[in-house]
Amino acid sequence: MLYDNSCILQMLQFENMKKVDEVIELIKNDCPLAARFFMNGMKKYCAEIGLTHIQGGVLLYLLQGEQHFSQTEVSGYIGANASAISRMLDDLEESGLVKRELNEDNRREHVVVLTDIGKAKALALDREITKLYAKMFEDLTEKEFDTIKDIFGKIKRSIA
Questions:
Q1: Please, are residues 23 and 148 in contact by the beta-carbon 8 Å criterion?
Q2: How far is CA 156 from the centre of its chain?
Q3: Residue 124 is inside which H or E element, if any?
Q4: Strand ranges across the sheet with 110-114
């Protein structure tokens, strides 16, 4: 996932983005309350731009890096069966957000590519997600932030 570092740094007043990324990972994986806050915010914003949160997740997944992803990879990421992903990609393609192209390396496979419109929506969604994370941390001092990171690290180790 991409993060608007300047937005987070400004809102959180931290100089080390690595700390933010580490705690974001901990919260995403280890804190159901934060996960619900995040998911509700994502659903709300996706609905405002005419997407389901799963479609938004697909756009964000496709935004990761320069490579294109196969329909099978998208299906594995979302955890849905191939026919459900195919229908969702049909909808996204009809909306002009993605396109499917023949994989030049494997002509039996199609890759899914963001269109310019799809990339713009994905970037806007990514900025909103960054704001959600910033909202979770906005009242913390750097010391409190480090303490939370340490606590979640201990919790993760104790349940792993």
A1: yes
A2: 21
A3: helix 116-137
A4: 69-70, 110-114, 98-102
Tens digits of residue pLDDT in 102-151: 888 888 888 899 999 999 999 999 999 888 888 888 888 989 888 988 88
**Domain CATH for 51:** 1.10.10.10
Backbone CA torsion sign across 84, 89, 90, 94: positive
Tell me if 155 is assigned to some domain.
Answer: no
Contacts of 33 (CB under 8 A, 6+ apart): none
Q: Taking the model in full, what pTM does it have?
A: 0.70
Give residue 60's domain range.
Answer: 5-140
Q: Using CA atoms, how far apart are residues 39 and 86, in angstroms rounded to an integer?
A: 24
What three-state secondary structure class fits 88?
A: helix
Query: In this predicted structure, what is the pLDDT of residue 38?
Result: 82
Token pair of 114 as six digits: 């963001």
Alpha carbon distance 45, 43 (integer Å): 6
Domain contains 154: no
Structure tokens, 80: 């849905």
Domains: count for the chain: 1
Residue 134 lies in a domain: yes
